[in-house]
From TrEMBL:
Residues 1-42 are annotated as: Disordered. Belongs to the nucleobase:cation symporter-2 (NCS2) (TC 2.A.40) family. The chain crosses the membrane at residues 97-116, 128-146, 152-171, 192-210, 216-236, 248-266, 278-298, 341-361, 381-403, 424-443, 449-467, 479-495, 518-540. It is found in: Membrane. It comes from the Eukaryota. This is Nucleobase-ascorbate transporter 10. One of its GO terms (molecular function) is transmembrane transporter activity. It is a multi-pass membrane protein. Keywords: Membrane, Transmembrane, Transmembrane helix. Pfam families: Xan_ur_permease (PF00860). GO terms for cellular component: membrane.
Length: 585
């Protein structure tokens, strides 16, 4: 609780008497701590008496303290560089490199999972990683310049893994005997599905359909959305870290120690340790992992342990070319299939919901005002362009806003747009210089998972922070938050019990594309929690003014229209006066 002081004093009064006699009076004393006074009286004489006493109290030296609630902040305090405040260039370069390192985790993980199943070798896996990194760099620039204008990093989306895996099992791809031909044919099918999906997402964004949806959001319905945007990726945290505990656990302990404890143990005017905790911890643990690899610790270990723990087992450095510039349709002309496209559209819908949660996180940790719905829709449209580029270049997955990089904004307390634009430059640069980029991409994934444990936690806590706008003493609020949280955990767990390769699952029709569509939606924690919360918030007495206040809607009404708040232009206006040609509504 925030505390406020209040001094106090008290006073007393007196009276007099008459009657035939003398009178007397007495005075009183003062006390402290909100005190009061005392009085006395006197009397005398026959037939009369009198009285009076009086006392006065004055303020004392000791103050009582009244407990006050924490203030509600539309913009998060404590951020050292907000969206429009770039740090000095040397510091910005290091911070941008941190964002680049963190984005490598999902960039390496998804192709490493999918490319071998497609029939690709290490050379093709390295090229796909370079292509994904190349496209992610441009998508990040587009989003920061023309999309939401927030410090968001755009990377490959994990939501597309289920429909892509389903495609790999289709007979028209799996029946191809030659691995290289199977890889190229599958890649062309993925490209065609992504291109169709991109059209759907661009329509949702640029025509304002997503804007109309976002206007129904209140702080209450945003809480489960943002919270599960972080918590829903728990399987990429400690479970992946524990695959090589001797590397992952020291990394987790070190990044927590440097970012949270070392800043208090070593007093410094400059915030070095918490701001660059990722660089320090990755460098130290990476050297430690190299020593373990060189000492022969993993020589007799199983293959899966070696692939996770060794720093030289990914095959990326040997497979990557020295210089490689990705280009559109490098794997051949895309092929199109309606069923595959429908499943991909479901994945893009999930990625769009999770990206919306990340938009709220980055606006919060960038110390900006809540994102207007028109800006969210504009960002969704540019994400659609990102999916289109992914389909044209062949990245095996679509685009989404990086959750981990949104959490890194909180760890560094730097929400500057320039920093993520610099990270985009690193992505493009190292995607072209393949060998050098492959060195950083060979960081063991347990180290990255340790960073995820911190960054996803910050994203989840940002969601809980929106409860400050809501009435937590309302049973309606308690039900919506509690029920959406529970269903956001329980429903995806039910769907995750069935492996994608299984013929039996919660949805088991003859149309595999329909099975994948339903599974992709309901396996996402953020999607389920957000849909449940939004439905309940809109149907449970939403029109009553009291319940609107319970949901916190009265705090966000002025942000529903771009022009209603004068600060919108400060954070979200397009560069070069493009708002005149593309006005936000």
């Amino acid at each position: 609780m925030a505390r406020g002081g209040r001094g106090g004093g008290g006073g007393g009064g007196g009276g007099g008497g008459g009657g035939g006699g003398g009178g007397g009076g007495g005075g009183g004393g003062g006390g402290g701590g909100g005190g009061g006074g005392g009085g006395g009286g006197g009397g005398g004489g026959d037939g009369g008496g009198g009285g009076g006493g009086a006392g006065g109290g004055g303020g004392g030296g000791v103050k009582t303290e009244e407990l006050l609630p924490h203030p509600v902040n539309e913009q998060l305090p404590g951020v050292q560089y907000c969206v429009n405040s770039p740090p000095p260039w040397p510091e910005a370069l290091l911070l941008g490199f941190q964002h680049y390192l963190l984005s490598l985790g999902i960039t390496v993980l998804i192709p490493s999972m999918l490319v071998p199943q497609m029939g690709g070798n290490n050379n093709e896996k390295a090229k796909v990683i370079q292509t994904l990194l190349f496209v992610s760099g441009f998508n990040t620039l587009f989003q920061s310049f023309f999309g939401t204008r927030l410090p968001t990093v755009v990377v490959g989306s994990y939501a597309y893994v289920i429909p892509v895996t389903s495609m790999l099992l289709a007979s028209r791809y799996s029946a191809v005997a030659d691995p290289h031909e199977r890889f190229e044919r599958t890649m062309r099918g993925i490209q065609g599905a992504l291109i169709i999906t991109a059209c759907f997402q661009m329509v949702m964004g640029f025509l304002g359909l997503w804007r109309n949806t976002a206007r129904f959001l209140s702080p209450l319905s945003v809480v489960p959305l943002v919270t599960f945007t972080g918590l829903g990726l728990y399987h990429l945290g400690f479970p992946m870290l524990a695959e090589c505990a001797e590397v992952g656990l020291p990394a987790l302990i070190l990044v927590v120690f440097i970012s949270q404890y070392l800043v208090h143990l070593i007093k410094s005017e400059r915030t070095i340790y918490d701001r660059f905790a990722v660089l320090f911890s990755v460098a130290i643990i990476w050297v430690y992992a190299v020593v373990l690899t060189a000492s022969g610790v993993y020589h007799k270990k199983p293959t899966d342990v070696q692939s996770t723990c060794r720093t030289d087992h990914a095959g990326l450095i040997g497979g990557a070319p020295w210089i490689y510039i990705p280009y559109p349709f490098q794997w051949g002309n895309p092929t199109f299939n309606a069923g595959e496209a429908f499943a991909m559209m479901a994945a893009s819908f999930v990625a769009l919901i999770e990206s919306t949660g990340s938009f709220f996180v980055t606006s919060r940790y960038g110390s900006a005002t809540p994102v207007p719905p028109s800006v969210i829709s504009r960002g969704a449209g540019w994400l659609g362009i990102g999916v289109l580029l992914s389909g044209m270049f062949g990245t095996v997955t679509g685009a989404t806003v990086s959750v981990e990089n949104a959490g890194l904004l909180a760890l560094t307390k730097v929400g500057s747009r320039r920093v993520v634009q610099i990270s985009a430059g690193f992505m493009i640069f190292f995607s072209i210089l393949g060998k050098f980029g492959a060195i950083f991409a060979s960081i063991p994934l347990p180290i990255v998972a340790a960073l995820y444990c911190i960054c996803f936690a910050y994203v989840s806590s940002a969601g809980l922070g929106f409860l400050q706008f809501c009435n937590l003493n309302s049973f309606r609020t308690k039900f919506i938050v509690g029920f959406s949280f529970f269903m956001g955990i329980s429903v995806p767990q039910y769907f995750r019990e069935y492996h994608p390769n299984s013929r039996f699952g919660p949805v088991n029709t003859h149309a595999r594309w329909f099975n994948d569509t339903v599974t992709v939606i309901f396996v996402s924690h953020a999607t389920v929690a957000a849909m449940v919360a939004l439905f309940l918030d809109c149907t449970l007495c939403r029109k009553h003014e009291a319940t609107r206040k319970d949901s916190g809607s009265h705090w966000w009404e002025k942000f529903n229209l771009y022009t209603s708040d004068v600060r919108s232009d400060e954070f979200y206006a397009l560069p070069c006066k493009l708002n005149k040609f593309f006005p936000a509504l």
